[in-house]
Amino acid sequence: MDIRPIHTEADYKAALKDIASLMESDPDLGTPEGDRLDILATLVQAYEAKHLPIAPPDPVEAIKFRMEQSGMSVKDLEPIIGKSNRVYEILNRKRPLTLAMIRRLHISLGIPADVLIAETVAG
Asked: What is the pTM of this model?
């Protein structure tokens, strides 16, 4: 079992290729192939965490995503944010979320509070 740390993009791509090949054979846990898959997946995960971090979503994009996911309209957000003009101001980035809105969005829609308190990217 010749497994080395992933230091470069080439190492990363080679590890992904090995993982894909191993996954096709669907090795059992505890077998040499299963152990190799487990180790490679752990190395890839560590490399991705260090070199390819995923940025948290923009608060407005998180709200729009949840609306789309749940089939919600602007009208559905009125009890949470306020009158429809206020909802549009938030969704169009003309007005920032207030603490009370963040709390209600977190409780009502299950959007993580840390996502909602992040800086909104100007649109």
From this structure: 0.59
